[in-house]
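Fill-in record for DUF4870 domain-containing protein.
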Amino acid sequence: MNPADERLWATLVHIGGIFFSFIPALVGYLVLKDRGPFVREHTATALNFQITLAIAYAVGWVLIVVGIGLLILLAVWVVNIVFSIIAAVKANAGQPYVYPLAIKFVS
């Protein structure tokens, strides 16, 4: 895969997380991980971030009973949008990006 295609796929995986949670990152990782180190790094990073957010969303839903859950869900949603856009811009520029606070499940 040429570098332009790697950047494109890495960008799409990051943006896809905004709309479809961890599914684009998981599919991207499984399909593209052997196509180049750049796309592998970005798909793994996006997958780790989206899994971390899925856990945060689950905690938010559980804490709705207490009353703080809605604020947590809103915060996680905003964090997802902001950091996914930052990661997509970095990927499109051909630069590495590490999401803050993402738990490393996949390397």
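KEY FINDING: The CA atoms of residues 43 and 85 lie 14 Å apart.
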